[in-house]
Specification:
Layout lengths: L4 H29 L6 H9 L10 H13 L1 H10 L1 H23 L2 H31 L3 E2 L2 E2 L9 H25 L2 H32 L1 H8 L3 H5 L1 H18 L5 H21 L2 E3 L3 E2 L7 H28 L12
Antiparallel strand pairs: 1-2, 3-4
């Protein structure tokens, strides 16, 4: 039996997407949390927690997009055609956020407020657009003769917009728990206080999406509630509740590291639930990874380069976070 390169590349894309959500999630979450903290010094401190490492976070987004283009060209064509508007808005938000990130450190005091607002708008726009794209992906795509044939405004549905709101809350939770881990004193206390309501809102959103999704999609309901699939899916909501309870206890005792780790667990569980819902389709609801795959020769050729570059990305990512580990020093500048 030969190696199934389609499964390997699907795993690489899933891993890249998860790494992007985790790493750029708390980065974007800091921008989302800016409106809740008006103190200029604490805003600088919030940004300084990610200043040494934020540049490399989008590497995983680029890797996932390039892998999708090379390994599953049909999926790349359909998804980009259907989601051209939200993905373009996402890129505009990421660019705007990145420019504001750099310029706010160099701006004069009278211009600092403008770049702070730009940082907030860019973070909200990029996150909301990603959530809308995710909701549209769950809803599925119409494909005729290997081309997208659905409406131009497929992404503009109540479910997709609600998913956009949900991702904003999820990234805000990642950002607040990251700041709990990286800061001390007053900022640490503020982020601990805001994390509990964020968690409760996120759990409410997860519950609504978990009911809305199977009611909207009969195929997903069948996948969730038939045996043996039910045995694969049942641990996900149970573990979400356990992780949430543990997070609330960690906040109560003013823990520093466990809130962020438990939030990562929630993100992973949500991602796992999505995977169970759509597998093995890469273009929901009916086109599988094998139907959308490029020739095995192309996937094999790409895999040689992928196996060389991915360890390098992992190594420099680990090293950069290791070097700047621990609490941020408010008396030092990291930019």
């Amino acid at each position: 039996m030969g190696i199934d390169t389609s499964i390997i590349w699907f795993t690489i894309i899933v891993f890249s997407t998860l790494m992007y959500i985790v790493m750029d999630g708390f980065d974007l979450g800091i921008g989302i949390l800016f409106p809740f903290n008006k103190d200029a010094g604490e805003r600088d401190l919030m940004v300084n927690t990610v200043a040494p490492v934020w540049d490399g976070n989008e590497t995983w987004l680029v890797l996932g997009g390039a892998a999708l283009y090379g390994a599953f060209p049909l999926a790349y064509a359909v998804i980009l055609d259907a989601l051209s508007v939200p993905l373009t808005l996402m890129l505009i938000g990421l660019i705007f956020r990145g420019v504001a990130f750099e310029f706010r450190f160099k701006a004069t005091e009278e211009h600092r407020a403008f770049w702070d607002k730009s940082f907030i708008v860019g973070s909200f726009l990029a996150t909301f657009s990603q959530g809308v794209a995710l909701g549209t992906f769950i809803n599925g795509f119409e494909v005729t003769n290997r081309a997208y044939s659905g409406p131009e405004l497929l992404w503009l549905t109540p479910f997709s917009l609600f998913c956009g709101l949900g991702l904003v809350v999820a990234y805000a939770l990642l950002g607040s728990t990251w700041l709990i881990m990286k800061t001390e004193n007053e900022l640490h206390r503020k982020m601990t206080a805001i994390t509990k309501p964020l968690l409760l809102v996120l759990l409410a959103i997860i519950a609504i999406v978990s009911v809305w999704t199977p009611l909207e999609h009969a195929d997903i309901m069948h996948r969730w509630f038939t045996l043996p699939n039910l045995f694969w899916f049942l641990p996900v909501p149970v573990l979400v509740l356990l992780a949430s309870m543990a997070l609330l206890r960690a906040l109560k005792r003013h823990a520093h590291y466990s809130p962020f780790l438990l939030t990562l667990a929630l993100v992973f569980l949500g991602f796992t639930g999505l995977g169970i819902s759509v597998w093995p389709n890469i273009i929901p609801p009916h086109i599988t990874i094998w139907m959308a795959a490029s020739p095995p020769q192309s996937q094999g050729f790409m895999l040689v380069g992928g196996l060389l570059i991915i360890p390098v990305i992992l190594a420099y990512t680990f090293w950069s976070y290791y070097v700047f580990r621990g609490k941020i020093n408010p008396n030092e500048h990291y930019h």
